[in-house]
Amino acid sequence: xxSTCLDAGVEESLLAPASPTRLRVEHLREAMGITTxxxxxxxxxxxxxxxxxxxxxTASNGWDxxxxxxxxxxxxPYAGPALQSRSRFEWRVRTWAADAxxxxxxxxxxxxxxxxxxxxxxxxxxxxxxxxxxxxxPAPGERPGYRLSKTFGPDVTPESARIYATAHGIYExxxxxxxxxxxxxxxxxxxxxxxxxxxxYDVTALxxxxxxxxxxxxxxxxxxxxxxxxxxxDMYGTHTALLAQLELQSGNSRTVIGTDESWLVSPxxxxxxxxxxxxxxxxxxxxxxxxxVSAAVARDGSxxxxxxPVAPATRVVEGLAPVAITRLDNxxxxxxxxQNIHGWVRLNRLGAPGEKVTLVYGEALGxxxxxxxxxxxxxxxxxxxxxLSAGQVxxxxxxxxxxxxxxxxxxxxxxxxxxxxxxxxxxxxEDITACLVxxxxxxxGTFTCSEGRLNKLHKIVEWSFRDNACEVPTDxxxxxxxxxxxxxxxxxxxxxxxxxxxxxxRKWLNDVRADQWEDxxxxxxxxxxxxxxxxxxxxxxxxxxxxxxxxxxxVPWELYLSTGDAxxxxxxxxxxxxxxxxxxxxxxxxQHPERQAASPTPAPHEQYLWDTGFHWGEWMEPDGSEPDxxxxxxxxxxxxxxxxxxxxxxxxxxxxxxxxxxxxAAALAELSENVRQAWETEYLDAxxxxxxxSQANCVxxxxxxxxxxxxxxxVTAQLVALIRAAGTHVGTGFLxxxxxxxxxADNGELDLAYELLMQDSEPSWLVMVDRGATTMWELWxxxxxxxxxxxxxxxxxxxxxxxxxxxxxxxxxxxxxxxxYERIIIEPRPGAGLASAATSHQGPHGLIEVEWTADDGGLQxxxxxxxxxxADVRLPGQPPAVVGPGKHHFAAARGGTAETPQLAKDPxxxxxxx
Length: 914
Prior knowledge:
The protein is an alpha+beta fold. The longest helix is centred in the middle third of the chain and has 23 residues, at 567-589.
């Protein structure tokens, strides 16, 4: 059959160039308080441009590049006057670009983008670390919030005013009764022993002539509150503290008001606040305890660890109204928001003065119709057979003051439902709002198709990620809220397509590096208190697992592929090599006891097998046994760990090449090939079958290129047989699921990939859709056939399947060897009777769009290719068509097939390329 380009070689008429858009500084939309003195600037070319030929940047501080003959518009280093603490400038850019006919056009100037530096040096601070005096510290989860305040009176209203603030704990600032800024959970979650973020605020408009009062509210937060599955507390210290500096500028005169022992401390309405347990508030407390004012005390605190933001701020990004409010026979009112989210509620209707209202948050309802938390209670490892509290309970007592609103901003919850207990009046929809709290990430990707259930699947995956994108990539927003490395390494290719996660991930990687152990082990969870604490914990043996520790290599690589920013690779290089050296040393120096007993003299290939130490393994396979961490400590997970050893060394070889480390690239490539051969020798039998047959092990053999080309057909057949033996159901657990459908599609089994995708009996993705999920479940049977919930109902990991929808169904993927979407492949591979599909991605060079429809007349494709990008368009039965920037239309006559009959010739080792 033939494929015809409807453009017949002629581009659609393009709009005249306007001005560059999407100005960024170090990948950030906002650059307030940054501490990078040579930031890199980026922009997107105007609509209609095909290739930039030059640019000019001007800035309010006098920097003017003049016309620069360059195609570079990403990560252009700042080269103006040296930047110091408090430096501020606005920059704008215009470009010269060629249109489709090669005619150069000068753009209009872009809108300006402000950039302001924070305090760069410890000597910039005159403020002191202060806190409340606590003769007796209450138990974790029961600690109150404190008010720290200072009243001052400037002689004149200043021309500008800035506050720089951070805390050991969570803080909020109020100036003259007005909340400062819209950021939440400040200073954010980091590995506090090495990194503590400082927020900078412009408060000029909040000042008034005469007396002013600056007030902070301080609670435990991540610093000393309970955290994670084990509910550990006091991880970074036992006392909260505040550091704040207000600077009033008028001409060359600067007045500084900093925290010190002259600040006053008093009780707040917050009786207790804890990120896991919840928040208790009594609005009568401030009035009743007005005389209880004391002086602040000095606290120890570092100035060396202070840094500006590298990620977007955390905010309330959306409010949800209830879809239903039900009063039960027991008097409880159950509010259903129709969507599982992360955050808190804003309650406008409170009880009578002194009447306590309890709010219990959850993801599911029990048999009585009330909120249940039973599935969210963590195991107590210190007391076998016991469970810890699920937390997620708020309480509020009203004072009766007009306009009183309860919004617990010093805790967070994962919930769809809230049970209100003790409120005698009936709630109306306008009385309560669910507040979605997340890092304010820019959406980049979309998908839609003719199958409604796939659209719903895509939506719940997006929601699940949004709910777990608060400060760090968490595993779940209720039970743990922890930055597990394994979860992020397998989901980041999907996340990076849907959202701009660059700064978000760089911030997290700073913590991963800080938390790395001396021997190279990567901690399971970051942020954490650091190697000294995690390596000494009674559960320390679970760190350093294959598939989790490998995140230090896999995450930077995926960020590089999505952005083209090699600096991300460079800043993580040392940590990457330390991890790989740990793996290599372990493989070469240790042998699993069972292998050693069977053959005391190791075979030559065994030096490349990583078969000792604790490994999580595939984790949560639908037909797998119940996890036993202590048994896994001595188990042989060599088939999984050695696979990751191969994949990670192959990626590190590519990274070395990108960074110009040619000798290291060659050595790593050789090591990776040796590991591959060892895996094949050990885990592939004479008949070409994987010796420990499971869907996951076969998938890894194909995805990580662990087997020779001539063995691929046999392992593919083995995988197909395992899938059919499972009733055409998915049998992978945690690690292999993102690779399952792409492996099938790339090895001649596209139809089977679609069968699994569309499977609607358990276990499958569509079971979640059909049973009413609004976020992805941790287990395949998160809500079983009887409606009983099991474990977390908000884990994004299994949602990595939607990358198949982007890359195969809609047909947009990055070409091998490309980074930053400079070269793309557009190749729809329809299946399951789909009549249409569309996807878009805002790449570094601009918006990429692909849309196709299929009917009796064949397949019609429309594509938008941005400036500076080349696309290979592949339609059924035809050789690729190479096209440049512009809008393109193609048609393929019916009768061709998107199936690839031959095996993949050169399978890639990563998900981001075919």
